[in-house]
Amino acid sequence: MILWSELAWLGGPRPAQNVALELSGDRIESVTTDLAQPPPTAERLHGLVIPGIANAHSHAFQRALRGRTQQAATNGSFWTWREQMYALAGALDPDSMLALARATFAEMALAGITLVGEFHYLHHDRGGTPYADPNAMGAAIIQAAQEAGVRLTLLDACYLHGGIGIAPQGAQLRFSDKTAEAWAQRVQQLKPVEPMLRIGAAVHSVRAVDPDSTATVADWAARRRAPLHAHVSEQPAENDACLDAYGATPTELLAGAAALSDRFTAVHATHISGHDLALLGDARARCCLCPTTERDLADGVGQARRLAQRRVRLALGSDSHALIEPFEEARAVELDERLATGIRGSHPPSELLEAATGGGYESLGWAEGGAIRAGALADLVAVRLDSVRLAGAPAADLIDALVFAGAACDIGDVLVGGRFVVRDGVHVSLDVPAQLRTAMASVQA
Amino acid sequence: MILWSELAWLGGPRPAQNVALELSGDRIESVTTDLAQPPPTAERLHGLVIPGIANAHSHAFQRALRGRTQQAATNGSFWTWREQMYALAGALDPDSMLALARATFAEMALAGITLVGEFHYLHHDRGGTPYADPNAMGAAIIQAAQEAGVRLTLLDACYLHGGIGIAPQGAQLRFSDKTAEAWAQRVQQLKPVEPMLRIGAAVHSVRAVDPDSTATVADWAARRRAPLHAHVSEQPAENDACLDAYGATPTELLAGAAALSDRFTAVHATHISGHDLALLGDARARCCLCPTTERDLADGVGQARRLAQRRVRLALGSDSHALIEPFEEARAVELDERLATGIRGSHPPSELLEAATGGGYESLGWAEGGAIRAGALADLVAVRLDSVRLAGAPAADLIDALVFAGAACDIGDVLVGGRFVVRDGVHVSLDVPAQLRTAMASVQA
User: Fold this and answer.
1) Closest chain A residue to B392 measured between Cα atoms?
2) Which residue of A371, B194, B205, B257 shows the fewest CB atoms closer than 10 Å?
3) What's this model's pTM, rounded to 2 decimal places?
4) Are A26 and A418 in contact (CB under 8 A)?
5) Prediction ipTM score
6) Contact A113, A324 (CB under 8 A)
7) In this complex, do A346 and B81 lie within 8 Å of one another by their Cβ atoms?
8) Which of B67, B328, B404 is opposite residue A400, by nearest beta carbon?
9) Mean pLDDT in runs of 10 for chain A (445 residues)?
């Protein structure tokens, strides 16, 4: 198949013009720019073509909380929100997980997301009893991604404790494998037989995983060259508890457990120290920011500028899915920093778009994707330029306009591995609003 | 005409169900809820009906800067952005102002905005020479609102100085009437012959208007019971210059010039003191926050929580139109505060929606609008609930979902004064993307 577009972003501040992409299987075979006219057999993509977007941090089931935690939140916090999230987590089963994740991943596809990193910790039945298939919940997520047509890295999360030195209780029992060795045994049974699936590891947080167990998970990931993610310093209370218990910050603790490497991604890293920044930078680790969730959960403004100064590469995630708006996620990195510093322009638009695409692909273990170049995965998104948000933006400023004013509803076509998943803003196989209604009803019942 | 909807927000945390609205002329004559079935002749509005949204602070021409100030912003600030804005202001004439404002107001209509407060200071020809019609620019804005179908309060701004004790220069010459008396004479010639138009006053800022001139403008507004707006403490540098020159904060200076009243709206008020808050509260003044612009211009997080505690009523504006997304504007009031405080839930969703609707109508001098009740202006918006953003939200949580996840592209129908301006997401008389392309091209040429 040959695709042709008047505008395609191959990196840098400006899009290339009159671009033909020759696809072969799930890959881009060649990229040709400045063509005088479209190749005769080419299929035209309207608007601006960008690489597929990676959602590097997702808890799909939390989509059911959208619009349901604000009214009762008076003088609430991350921790009161967590109680609502636990109530939801306590109510799910593999069927409702499948319904929720399928609808949520399909909503992502419509927003131009072609790769999801699902940070998955809801493993077991009520009370912590394993399902007959101990990976029944993971299997539901894998099936959901297949049916929604998106690429998936299942970041299977180890979660053992309800807090440092505290036994898990309530919904947390469903998260726990009891030991890191049992976690590894269970995860070992997940087979990425699907070409659109990879398995990665996650340490939920220093709250939920002790240093020795972290070392076990890190070793598991290292042996397989698999991505390893962890929630890091999302809230000041986590730092306080960690310093009290260990005399070290969460990042220092992870470093001590040999978790930091170029396969490691710190999620949030909102409240990290200068030493933490140095540790992440020296390890060539990555950081996934989730600005719309960090706003929603009152986490605070992230450290994007200081991370970039340390050459820590950024990825982006919609996390709790309060919104699934990748361009809002990208611009919020810069905008929230402006609120905190009074300085404009710490991150050029192309750097933010790179975080949303290639940065996320690398964080999730798909370094061969997230860019438009010969040999890369043919994960592609065409953004319509005829909406009121983007109409009239000159070609030289399109990346600026896209990142700072684009919206999910501007997405026209989405291809994953060379196959159309979304055409003209419509999912090719799922009625996504209907899927969402059904999924939400199953949870509220 | 009788309108019928399954859901309509009449205020409070939850929408009313099965609602009929009988219209008469430009007003709502009656509101009936819990109808067993639709009245036979009723026209159905799909989704959730809310009052029309007020955009209480707009500089329409700045829409041309969207997506054009980010790339070059490295280590920039509000003040470097202002240079780009001045370059644009210097290039406009009444024709390009008309084209830009018409397209921008039409984009607003599509976003559910039925009333605009245009804070208008670009009055004169290059070098400060008055046009043959000294209100040629204001007339262009009035015509633009008529053609876009939105209600308008033209907040004609007095602007005399380039800074405290500094003569205007460059583009600023176009803003200046030289004296407040000359400003009043010019504004006096603006006749609100149109029922959709009202004239209000503005003091650009304490940077641009000295205290005696402010008193003249305030007196003009008081005699006419007209709204009076002013930019207040948007940046710390304004406070510093004001304290240096006068030994008073901008709000204290405005209070001393008798500008504060229940017709006064402080725009931004980002960096105000406790005493300023007390002054605004005691005067029953209002505050217009513009969160997406305040993010873009690195102004800082606003004072919404402290203002609400002082019972200062809020309005919202999209200001520079980096985005025209009223629900993002509304939720950002709460979300940005969360980033600064770590606290969730300072503002219930219904309070944020009230700021976007009735709060703005009152700020702009249309207290008879911005609510769905008998006797109110028939300015109405129907939000589709079948998008992926809102599908599946239960009726009890709809206001929560709308404010925290709704988008401009969810707007279905918009009525202003009982007449449809937007139907099924399409403007009834303008091709808005084409208008935007033409307007942008006229400015870039």
Assistant:
1) A437
2) B194
3) 0.97
4) yes
5) 0.97
6) yes
7) no
8) B67
9) 97 96 98 95 96 98 94 82 95 97 98 98 97 98 98 98 97 98 97 90 98 98 98 96 98 98 98 98 98 97 94 98 98 96 94 98 98 98 98 93 98 98 98 97 81
